[in-house]
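Help! Submission page says 'invalid entity' but I think these are all valid:
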Amino acid sequence: QVQLVESGGGVVQPGRSLRLSCAASGFTFSSYGMHWVRQAPGKGLEWVALLSYDGSNRYYADSVKGRFTISRGNSKNTLYLQMNSLRAEDTAVYYCAKDGGGDYLAWYFDLWGRGTLVTVSS
Amino acid sequence: EIVMTQSPATLSVSPGERATLSCRASQSVSSNLAWYQQKVGQAPRLLIYGASTRATAIPARFSGSGSGTEFTLTISSLQSEDFAVYFCQQFNNWPLLTFGGGTKVEIK
């Protein structure tokens, strides 16, 4: 079954860290760029980060640059998001999403997970 | 940053009727636009990319049109499973990807 399943969300205090994971199945994970996208409660979608299929290219939204790190384990078919120095405004559902391209980046998302909720609160 | 504006915020439609959703970009995005469907508690689903190309397994009742700054998603005959929130997304100005605020299609 082609799917993405996020995990690792929870409640964390401001300034602390959290690592999200996204387990991929049903497709050749190592052949595709992967993204994180988030949605704050009652708000629209916000792109967070992209990692190319081979890990050679990373891009981040300005709002998370320097605090978040995207990585992947192709042998484990897993995408990660290390989130440091968390702020209240990082509170959101975090979605993992597959890039619509292959060995090129298409910059749209043809497969999404159901998301994991991160709440930053003291 | 390219601002994407969707209208209306809510669209009330009867089953079997046509629904027309709009998405406007603050500057040209060429045809680099995608549409997604999101139901409560479910993962978003890609409907359209390249402004008018249906994604895999998307029914023909969904169609996209437009280029530049004005785009439309049309659902020709609404089915019960189509009541959801629809988002547009521009990918012309990568990596500064931006989404519209969404249109909720509800049962009239």
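Support: the input was valid. A stray whitespace character was the problem, and the output above is from the cleaned input. The interface with chain A takes residues 32, 34, 36, 41-46, 49, 55-56, 87, 89, 91, 94-102 of chain B (CB under 8 Å).
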